[in-house]
Here is the input.
Amino acid sequence: MSFMTELKKRAEYHRTLRELRRLPLDTALDLDIYKGDAPAIAHRAVYGA
Here is the structure.
């Protein structure tokens, strides 16, 4: 993977993580998202399983 691709992925990861952490608690619970799992969910969303 190129350096620029890595930078874009990293930015996308942090943006996704920030959005997940900003979810209101009731919304996160409705989506079955535990806030402590946000880093793993963001990683999977950006980099795949």
